[in-house]
Design goal:
The chain is of the alpha/beta class. It contains 11 helices and 11 strands.
Length: 305
């Protein structure tokens, strides 16, 4: 079981090397991450975009393009479609956003002809390695679905369990979060959290343990369970997955961890036929590299299945 990003990187080294297709690859930070991923044995890459601009950046960052396949497509939209088709056709294992806006990138992901639709709704999962924590934390959804319905939350759980499994975490503990850990009809989040737990008990949600509603402290701090007399619950401060009631709660915690803790993270769009790496321009170089490592593990797990 992986407990840190160092564990994840060791795990990546034990699987066949994967290949990432980069859409509109003429992006300095993305090429730096791709270069590092190759040097660390995480993944090879196909760079799709303006070959002249890619070459200019490669020269600046001392990147030997002889080690990569470069596909020259000047038009941004066409480059994205070409890059995603490589994954769709099995010529690459995962798909990464380069110098293209998020809307255009996701449009290529969802393209009916060459995209990566799986029939399941897409969601976002972020994996955190926080100093002081004894395990990885899987945060979802912090960036994609603004106000998830009960049905959305079921799909989010299923998508995230797949990522947990790829990281060596079997039967992960999923905590649907709310402000309190008891059902309050005036707080819909608590009602839905309890419904998710019931669905898990009835076998409608499988491959994990769901216990909710849970407050953040009860989900993540074992001592909180003792203080609150909740040691009989399925999750007593040892949750693997934090399922947020809405994007606001998730995004706020995500940014608090990034800016106020010593932590590492990587993230993916899930619910697709192959891992999709959609990082922000504000994300650090290491986040991009970690996301590639995470994508490689998920790609290997999906291929084995």
């Amino acid at each position: 079981m992986s407990k840190s990003f160092d564990d994840l990187l060791s795990r990546v080294a034990s699987v066949p090397k994967k290949k990432v297709s980069v859409a509109v690859a003429q992006d300095n930070e993305v090429l730096l991450a791709v270069k590092a991923a190759k040097e660390r044995g995480i993944a090879d890459a196909i760079l799709v975009g303006d070959a002249d601009k890619i070459a200019e950046i490669a020269k600046e960052i001392d990147m030997n393009l002889a080690d990569y396949e470069v596909v020259d497509v000047k038009d941004v939209t066409e480059a994205a479609l070409k890059a995603v088709k490589l994954v769709h056709d099995g010529d690459a294992d995962m798909y990464m956003k380069g110098l293209i806006d998020t809307k255009g990138f996701l449009k290529s992901v969802l393209d009916k002809e060459v995209g990566l639709r799986s029939g399941s709704p897409l969601s976002h999962v972020c994996v955190f390695d926080v100093e002081g924590a004894e395990k990885l934390l899987f945060l979802t959804d912090v960036a994609f679905i603004p106000y998830p319905t009960l049905e959305d939350k079921v799909n989010i759980i299923n998508n995230t369990v797949e990522v947990c499994n790829a990281c060596g975490i079997e039967n992960p503990k999923v905590a649907p979060l709310a402000a309190v850990e008891v059902v309050n009809p005036k707080m819909p989040e608590t009602v839905e959290a309890a419904e998710l737990a019931k669905m898990n008990e009835e076998g409608k949600i499988t491959g994990c343990i769901v216990d909710g509603p849970l407050s953040f402290d009860l989900a993540t701090a074992p001592e909180a369970a003792i203080h609150k007399g909740a040691t009989g619950r399925k999750i007593v401060g040892d949750a693997d997955v934090l399922l947020f009631p809405d994007i606001h709660a998730g995004n706020i915690l995500y940014k608090a961890l990034v800016h106020f803790s010593n932590s590492k993270n990587g993230n993916l769009i899930t619910g697709t036929k192959a891992p999709v790496i959609l990082t922000s321009r504000s994300d650090s170089f290491e986040v991009k590299v970690n996301s590639l490592a995470l994508g490689a593990l998920v790609a290997d797990s999906m291929k084995n299945k």
